[in-house]
Amino acid sequence: MMRYFIPFIVLALALTSCKDTKSERIRTAVKSQLSLYPESTLQDIYKNFFQDYFGPGHMVSDTTSAGAYLDRELASFEHPDGAYYEPTGSNGNFFRVNLSVIKEGLISRDAFFDAFLRSVSNIQTITLEQWEGEWQEIDSVIHTMDLSLAGYEQERAKIFSLLEQGKYVMHHSEPFSKAYDPHYRIIGREIFQKEIRPLLPPQK
User: Fold this and answer.
1) Is 1 among the domain residues?
2) What is the pTM of this model?
3) What is the three-class DSSP state of 51?
4) Going along 59-108, which residue ranges are E strands?
5) Number of folded domains that form the chain
6) Helices and strands (DSSP H and E) totals, the chain
7) HSE-up of 170 (CA within 13 Å, CB side)?
8) Cα distance between residue 180 and residue 160, in whole Å
9) Range of the domain at 82
10) Do residues 146 and 59 make contact, with C-beta atoms less than 8 angstroms apart?
11) What is the pLDDT of residues 133-155, one digit of tens each?
């Protein structure tokens, strides 16, 4: 199983250095994602930054169904690839935690699920109007990076059209899903650092 570590060091330094401007942190986060996931499209970059502000993007109203869905997902794959964890966006407010930590016996399913539920219940979201303003700033930085992303103009228009409709949730793009088959849950930074990270080995 491949593990990725160096890009996280770069991103962590960017997130913690007071010398870095917001635009520089955005650039670093985008570059880190494309280094780890070259098949990412703008839609996947959007999702990463969205998760930094909104976590999973929804409340869990039925914990029984959410637990059953997790169990079905765990049963659907054998050898998950990718990093054990990675910070979201340019602020690292949340972490994507790979379900491999459960499959490999590093964390119990119940402890993981409890951390996820508490992360969801503790979300303090911003308004759609505030998020639209944040994304416009993020988008303006990305637009100057000349990334040559597949379907860039179409997806850029799609995102702004979605926001104009008062919507904001997007799934991973089809190229991303096919290339990486992601299996993770979003855990809040404080919960992750106190309860999850101490149980994990160093990333390779």
Assistant:
1) no
2) 0.87
3) helix
4) 85-87, 94-98
5) 1
6) 10, 3
7) 25
8) 26
9) 6-199
10) no
11) 999 999 999 999 999 999 999 99
